[in-house]
């Protein structure tokens, strides 16, 4: 069990480097299953627990996976099974992204129902609707979803009822080896979709229109391994931008792509923060009192739900009352209770949170209820009086590389502690943790060839 300890009151300055995008690297690793020839080399793969989890899913399917120095190599030439086990898939929703590639390549897939952060019900009906349209037969039972096709999948016209990121990605991957043309209407437009399309295209696929609401995929017969650089993580970048703004700091967020952060930049500018996009990053200067603003989360290019809780931390320090409306996930305000432990005044009305600004935040013992909630509590801790202890670090490890080190590099007073714990505490924590961050004995099993960096475990 570990905790982040933050002592508030430090102004952040300097430069911080953004890692590769979690939400790009996960579908890209899954797409590597489509390569029947050659090896896939994925560069700037961030050393995150989620990356380990999806890599283990691939290993369980018979692919060879190695990880070293932010480079993942996948050899998927010989797959041994089309069944992805509960053991790994339950830990992370994105594991379900192996279904499209497996179905397309092997004509069948059996995947455990996915887990993930408890931010909403997160159905997968749109993924399944897409696979069915491509000719797959879907059945459900004993916690597994099975998809089968007789012969190759066949291209189809698919309209998504919601512009789901995961469904768009899964269908794109399934359609890459289908016979004929597939169109996805009301497709998600996130930069990570474009990154996946670029990856598929360099593997030999023909995907057009990614980044727009209409994606066209012309199926090909075979795909091959390639070398690909993952795009920088816009949510990690946005988190450091908020860290700069909340502490009245001056920080260069190296690698941040301003174009991917449009709504975050617009809202921060409205609040009075100066943002200067540079050649390879974004400078954030916060030297004025912050103004209250209203924020509504939406699919890209709207304000990202993955930045909602971090934005709430910032709005707690603004002058006036702000309203955040969460439209993407129905249960993504769990951080509110934790902020309240830090003396925040926030009221929930339906899908909106009403935030009273100018909060005198005080350090407290709080718990990360999901990945971004954890980041937001650390941000609040940066400006709280006294010491904040953030537990639930396994959530944070899913999406942030060396968070304490990066923030302390900017001057923050933050560190991570491993705690001595009673057997009861250890057992409780063990239940909450994903398998990937459980004890060293598990990691030491020769099940998996991924090299784990010491600071990661
Ligand atoms: C690994 C990854 O990339 N995760 C991101 C991805 O998650 P993920 O791909 O799971 O999110 P989706 O875009 O699919 O979900 C958006 C909304 O659509 C709903 N939905 C989704 C699929 C479906 O079949 N039916 C359905 O109703 C969901 O419940 C949710 O309300 O996009 C989310 C929305 O930007 C982000 O918060 C996650 O960080
Ligand atoms: C919700 C998130 O991720 P996932 O879809 O992997 O749970 C996130 O990155 O904030």
Structure summary:
The protein is an alpha/beta fold and 457 residues long. Helices cover 32% and strands 24% of the residues.
Give me the secondary-structure category.
Answer: alpha/beta
Helix content: 25-40%
- CATH architecture descriptor text of the largest domain: Alpha-beta prism
Alpha-carbon distance between the two ends: 11 Å
CATH class of the largest domain: Alpha Beta
Could you say how many structural domains there are in total? 2
Work out the number of β strands. Answer: 26
What summary fits the major beta sheet? Answer: 4 strands, mixed
Mean pLDDT: 91
| Mass-distribution shape | elongated
- Would you identify the CATH H-level superfamily of the largest domain? Enolpyruvate transferase domain
Give, in spatial order, the strands making up the sheet with the most strands: 24-25-1-26
Folded structure, characterized:
This protein has 457 residues and is an alpha/beta fold. The protein has 2 domains: 2-19 and 232-419, UDP-n-acetylglucosamine1-carboxyvinyl-transferase, Chain; 22-229, Enolpyruvate transferase domain (UDP-n-acetylglucosamine1-carboxyvinyl-transferase, Chain). It contains 16 helices and 26 strands. The strands form 7 sheets. Strands 24-25-1-26 form a 4-stranded mixed beta sheet, covered by helices on one side. The chain is elongated, with a radius of gyration of 22 Å. The chain starts with a strand and ends in a 13-residue tail after the last helix. It binds uridine-diphosphate-N-acetylglucosamine and phosphoenolpyruvate (PEP). Phosphoenolpyruvate binds at residues 93-94, 116-117, 119, 306, 371-372, 399.
């Amino acid at each position: 069990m570990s905790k982040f300890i933050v002592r508030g009151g430090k102004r952040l300055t300097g430069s911080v480097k953004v890692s590769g995008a979690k939400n790009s690297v996960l579908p890209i690793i899954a797409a590597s299953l489509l390569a029947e020839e050659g090896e896939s080399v994925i560069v700037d793969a961030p050393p995150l627990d989620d990356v380990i989890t999806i890599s283990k899913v691939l290993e369980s399917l018979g692919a060879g996976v190695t990880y070293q120095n932010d480079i993942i190599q996948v050899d998927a030439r010989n797959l041994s099974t089309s069944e992805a086990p509960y053991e790994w898939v339950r830990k992370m929703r994105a594991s379900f992204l192996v279904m499209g590639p497996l179905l397309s390549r092997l004509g069948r897939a059996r995947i455990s129902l996915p887990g993930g952060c408890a931010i909403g019900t997160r159905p997968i009906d749109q993924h399944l609707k897409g696979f069915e349209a491509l000719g797959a037969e879907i059945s459900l039972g004993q916690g597994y979803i099975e998809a089968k096709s007789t012969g190759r999948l066949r291209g189809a016209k698919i309209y998504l009822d919601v512009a789901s990121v995961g469904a768009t990605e899964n269908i794109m991957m399934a359609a890459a080896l289908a016979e004929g043309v597939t169109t996805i209407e009301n497709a998600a437009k996130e930069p990570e979709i474009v990154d996946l399309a670029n990856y598929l295209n360099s593997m030999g696929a023909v995907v057009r229109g990614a980044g727009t609401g209409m994606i066209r995929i012309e199926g090909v017969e075979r795909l091959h391994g390639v070398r690909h650089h993952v795009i920088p993580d816009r949510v990690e970048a946005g988190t450091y931008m908020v860290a700069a703004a909340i502490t009245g700091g001056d920080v260069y967020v190296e690698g941040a792509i301003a174009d991917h952060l449009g709504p975050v930049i617009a809202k921060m500018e409205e609040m009075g923060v100066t943002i200067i996009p540079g050649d390879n990053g974004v400078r954030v200067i916060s030297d004025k009192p912050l103004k209250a603003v209203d924020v509504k989360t939406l699919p890209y290019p709207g304000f990202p739900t993955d930045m909602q809780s971090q934005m709430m931390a910032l709005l707690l320090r603004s002058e006036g009352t702000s309203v955040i409306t969460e439209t993407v996930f129905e249960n993504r305000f769990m951080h509110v209770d934790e902020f309240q432990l830090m003396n925040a005044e926030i009221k929930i009305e339906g899908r909106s949170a009403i935030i009273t600004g100018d909060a005198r935040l005080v350090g407290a013992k709080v718990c990360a209820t999901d990945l971004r909630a954890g980041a937001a509590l650390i941000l609040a801790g940066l400006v709280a009086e006294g010491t904040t202890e953030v537990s639930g670090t396994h959530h944070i490890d899913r999406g942030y590389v060396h968070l304490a080190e990066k923030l302390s590099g900017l001057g923050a007073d933050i560190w991570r502690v491993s705690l001595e714990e009673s057997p009861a505490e250890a057992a409780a924590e063990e239940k909450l943790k994903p398998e990937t961050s459980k004890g060293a004995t598990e990691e030491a099993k020769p099940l998996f060839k991924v090299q784990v960096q010491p600071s990661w475990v």
